[in-house]
Automatic annotation (TrEMBL):
Residues 4-57 form the Zinc beta-ribbon finger putative domain. This is DUF927 domain-containing protein. Residues 111-237 form the DUF6371 domain. It comes from Hymenobacter psychrotolerans DSM 18569. InterPro entries: DUF6371, Zinc_ribbon_put.
């Protein structure tokens, strides 16, 4: 076969090697017509020292430089059935990228058009060529916030080892090639690296064509043909083109600094240059060097203008300053030529102002503009200011300094350079002149007070609460009402726009429209006509023009669905506002601004007509009052004493539960125990007021409690959720749920998708339980709580009445007062916790009680924030440090005593006494089921266990332990003595009978702490043979 490429021959000169930088040693490749290929292809003469040998793909070359026969390269394509399957998966919109796109208001249909598919937990970009044939595909994994999962490698179709031996491989085309429009050869093609960037940006900039090349070096020979004969805009990622460092110093080559590769400097740009393509590089973020791109900007709510800088045809050379004629002060006295320049310059500047284009993005364009306008002398200064004013960083001083320099240099004799810059922004003088005449004609058709600018900018104008277009027959109404998009509410599940509609008759309504309402004409008319006399008479084109105007003016906001602490925004949200060092109330639409961002709280929004919605959330609201923490704490302590102090500590720690849980992976529950009318419910009510209108406690007797409690705990962060009516007879599922709250376990549910995704709902608030039963049926639950005991008795009724009156004023101001110190708590909590825990351990050691360490940690967790605030004198408390420690130790000792009496082995002996003393007849018989020997008690567990199970249920409303578990606990009982074979079958009072010895467990009777004399009579100590 004949070779398509060969090495250049003498007399064509050798060039500089791109590898070793030596001159006149590099022989280039040429095509069959003798045209030199890209200068990266060639062979260095210095094979021993350099060895650079880069040949065009698919060709083999001999050492002589002549082409040898190469195997015919075969291009593979995905099988037809594979392609059909992947194309069908573009209908699946469940990937994380699809979900993220919805939060940006991008409909699923847009991604489907771009051939974005879902394959299990991956997003697939299908590379379709211009004939819409599948060439290849790329699989990526994204997180729910639209970021690529860097721990998971992307992949695509690849040839097997056998196929590689045959030079067979899968090709690639530009992603989005199948969507390139060919109706206008002047329409630029925007080229980006990432497929995701092309998909997202094309929605917000539909007037441009978009493709992705896959990487900074992604434009290759096989892909580039799709870009031929079109203007190309390379949107550079914010990386590359900075000095490359070697051993900490800039790397030099041939006396020049070596620059890094990246979005601003890469082989793709060199490839475009070698093919002599019409391209420009647009650097949207010149101040950044972290790889930031257009997709990142859209995520951050930024929509930068995408306009290409002017391309100078030649390097500007310094010219000697010219002596320009002095212009008369009055423009009317200028020469005809200068008047024409002045007229044209004003037309261009008005168009720049109308479009809001900032020429100063490119320093050379801005300098050329100043030099051009300097021909008008001082008259041109105001023109330059007019161009600069729309920019946020506009500085009058800087503009004056630039213009003064331009006046001094006097480089230009006409504004030609300025007009050339305008042409690069698609501003043509002929169009401007035509527009002037059109404006005159249009002005005659428009109502008084309506500017032609509005019509040219949007394609319609507003008048008398309606929108009109202009036809050859005159104005035509396209929409019988006006729309104002107040906010775009970003939400993972329910994005929407809050809009205000006002019709021709003055009727106004505000509502939230789902983003899908703007996808098509039918959906839009359905939504707006359902709320009143709002008739849209236009077509799809009119709706698109309207959307462009509305979407450009909208403000992006984020919906708050969980009240309490908001980690990302660093504020505490009530249903009617947020707090971060200061209180900010929502506006009439439920919007609040914080740190330059908008947040939407739908609970009291004026657009919410359902008064039965958000009942519990509406109670979680703040109302200003004069109540201070010091006065409230004093009354709580006077009314509730020790319980009030510990409850106060629990409340304060609950406001920082997120941080505390992160430090320990656990958070204790408070348990208020007492009989009816003992005051535990009133006590809980006093703390409910701290979060707004008191919420109803959730009854644990309700069979649907588990799901309801978990949902409530997930709806509020750093608050307190009250659970009531706990009884030891609750089912195991409820007990398991309560224990899980301590460890942060929630509820796992399946998500409707094509894979095995699940959703985990975790508790985010502290749990407060009340009940008449002490939770000693399960010690694992008991030790996860801090027990407060309530006894009916006298209280300080005068202080109680004062507390009730205080609660009528709203106590949420106290919560704000505590939250002001979050930064201090977060900073010092971990160090301070260790000190508090060690102090508690030392105090318990003095009491010579071996307390379970979990109980000490639980108490230290809730004491630490209060002790820090107390010792730092940040809040005033009605007790000192030592008093609080003493109360905490008293609580721990009391609970430890209850636990000691409530162990499973201890409960067995209580049941054992019940079996012996059962009336009218004992359920176990001395001599047959148990006996005394040498002052110790021996039992036959096999005989005792069945009646124990029944008696345990009678006494505790739950069955006892299974035999294996009970066997284990009894062997580890402190009173356990031995396992022994003894003779039994001796009914009390019967003659001694010889029987075979049987296995039994022996216990030191004196250490059991039980009394059997009333049932068993005298203790028998003689041996039985």
């Amino acid at each position: 076969m004949s070779a398509r490429y060969s090495l250049e021959k003498h007399p064509k000169p050798k060039g500089t090697c791109p590898n070793c930088s030596q001159k006149k040693v590099f022989r280039f490749f040429q095509d069959q017509d003798g045209n030199r290929l890209d200068e990266q292809y060639g062979i260095c003469d210095r094979q021993a020292k350099c060895g650079y040998d880069h040949r065009p793909s698919g060709e083999l070359f001999t050492a002589t430089g002549t082409a040898a026969d190469a195997p015919e390269a075969e291009t593979l394509k995905p099988a037809a059935d594979v392609a059909a399957t992947l194309l069908a998966k573009t209908k699946d919109h469940s990937s994380n990228l699809h979900k993220y796109a919805r939060t940006l208001t991008i409909p699923a249909e847009h991604l489907e058009k771009w051939a974005v598919a879902t394959d299990r937990d991956r997003t697939v970009f299908l590379h379709l060529n211009g004939e819409k044939q599948l060439v290849n595909a790329k699989w990526f994994k994204y997180t729910e916030d639209g970021r690529r999962d860097k721990l998971t490698q992307p992949y695509s179709f690849a040839s097997t080892d056998e196929e590689k031996k045959k030079s067979a491989r899968y090709a690639f085309c530009l992603f989005g090639e199948h969507l390139l429009r060919h109706d206008n050869p002047e329409r630029p093609i925007c080229v980006v690296e990432s497929e995701k960037s092309a998909v997202l940006a094309s929605f917000f900039y539909p007037h441009l064509d978009w493709v992705a090349c896959g990487a900074a070096n992604g434009i290759t020979d096989e892909k580039i043909s799709a870009l031929f004969n079109r203007p190309i805009w390379w949107l550079a990622d914010a990386d590359g083109n900075v000095p490359k460092l070697k051993d900490g110093q800039p790397e030099m080559r041939n006396g020049k600094q070596v620059l890094t590769e990246g979005g601003r400097n890469n082989s793709s740009l060199r490839k475009l240059k070698s093919y002599k393509q019409d391209f420009v590089v647009i650097d949207l973020f010149p101040e950044r060097h972290d790889g930031y791109d257009i997709a990142d900007a859209l995520r951050d709510g930024v929509r930068p203008d995408i306009v290409a800088p002017a391309k100078p045809k030649f390097e500007a050379k310094a010219k000697k300053a010219k002596e320009l004629p002095v212009l008369p002060a009055d423009v009317d006295n200028w020469s005809v030529q200068m008047k024409d320049y002045w007229y044209k310059a004003n037309l261009f500047i008005e168009e720049f102002e109308r479009r809001g284009i900032w020429i100063g993005k490119n320093d050379e364009d801005w300098e050329n503009t100043a030099n051009s306008l300097a021909i008008f002398r001082e008259h041109g200064r105001e023109l330059l200011h007019r161009l600069a004013r729309p920019e946020k960083t506009y500085s009058k001083q800087d503009v004056d300094a630039l213009f003064d320099e331009a006046l001094q240099n006097a480089i230009c004799s006409s504004p030609a350079k300025f007009f050339a810059i305008g042409k690069h922004y698609n501003i043509q003088l002929s169009d401007l002149k035509e527009k002037v005449s059109e404006e005159d004609e249009l002005r005659s058709m428009l109502p008084k007070g309506v500017s032609p600018e509005d019509y040219f900018k949007h394609g319609f104008y507003e008048h008398d609460n309606a929108y009109y277009s202009v036809t050859k027959d005159g104005p035509k109404m396209v929409c019988g009402f006006t729309i104002k998009v107040l906010y775009l509410v970003k939400s993972k599940d329910n994005p929407k726009r809050i809009v205000e509609l006002k019709n021709q008759y003055g009727y106004t309504t505000t509502l939230d429209l789902p983003t899908d309402a703007f996808v098509g004409l039918g959906a839009f008319k359905k939504y707006v006509e359902s709320v009143g006399n709002f008739v849209f008479e236009g077509n799809e084109t009119d709706l698109t023009r309207l959307k462009k105007k509305l979407f450009r003016e909208e403000k992006v906001t984020t919906e708050i669905t969980t009240l309490g602490w908001h980690e990302r925004g660093q504020f505490y949200a009530f249903s009617n506002g947020i707090f971060n060092s200061k209180w900010t109330k929502t506006d009439e639409y439920g919007i609040v601004e914080h740190d330059g961002l908008n947040y939407f709280l739908p609970f009291f929004s004026g657009i919410n007509d359902d008064h039965n919605a958000y009942i519990n959330e509406k109670k979680f609201s703040h109302k200003d009052s004069s109540v201070k923490f010091e006065g409230w704490a004093d009354l709580i302590y006077k009314v509730y004493g020790l319980n009030g102090a510990i409850g106060m500590c629990f409340y304060i720690s609950s406001l920082f539960r997120d941080y505390i849980f992160e430090a320990h992976n656990s958070f204790p529950m408070l348990y208020a125990f007492g009989q009816r009318q003992s005051g535990k419910s009133v006590f809980a009510d006093s703390f409910k007021h701290l979060f707004g209108t008191p919420q109803d406690s959730i009854s644990l007797e309700n069979p649907s409690t588990v799901i309801g409690v978990i949902r409530t705990l997930a709806n509020f962060t750093n608050s307190i959720v009250m659970l009531d009516e706990y009884k030891n007879s609750v089912d195991k599922k409820t007990v398991g749920m309560l224990k899980g709250f301590y460890d942060g376990f929630g509820r796992t549910t399946g998500v409707k998708s094509n894979d095995n995704q699940t959703k985990v709902t975790k508790p985010r608030s502290a749990v407060w339980i009340s009940g008449q039963d002490m939770p000693n049926i399960d010690n694992a639950l008991f030790t996860r709580t801090i027990l407060l005991e309530f006894l009916a008795g006298d209280r300080d009724y005068e202080s109680f009445d004062r507390l009730k009156k205080m609660q009528e004023k709203s106590l949420t101001s106290i919560t704000l007062e505590v939250l002001r110190h979050r930064a201090d708590i977060v900073k010092w909590y971990k160090d301070f916790f260790k000190v508090v825990r060690d102090n508690l351990r030392q105090l318990m050691a003095k009491h010579k009680v071996d307390v379970e360490d979990r109980m000490i940690q639980n108490m230290a967790i809730i004491l630490t924030p209060t002790l820090y605030l107390l010792e730092a004198n940040l809040l005033k408390f009605p007790f000192d440090v030592d008093t609080l420690y003493d109360m905490a130790v008293q609580i721990i000792l009391r609970q430890h005593q209850q636990i000691s009496q409530s162990t499973d082995s201890r409960r067995f002996w209580d049941v054992f006494v019940g079996l012996v003393s059962h009336k009218p007849m004992p359920l176990i018989i001395e001599g047959q089921d148990y006996r005394f020997y040498k002052g110790n008690l021996y039992i036959r567990l096999g005989n005792v266990h069945p009646p124990y199970m029944q008696q345990h249920r009678n006494q505790y409303n739950v069955p006892g332990l299974d035999k294996t578990t009970l066997d284990y606990y009894l062997k580890n009982d402190p009173a356990f003595l031995e396992k022994k074979d003894l003779r039994f079958d001796m009914p009390a009072g019967s003659p001694v009978l010889k029987t075979n010895p049987t296995s039994c467990y022996g216990f030191k009777f004196d250490e059991l702490g039980i009394d059997l004399t009333s049932s068993a009579g005298d203790v028998m100590t003689q041996d039985i043979e």
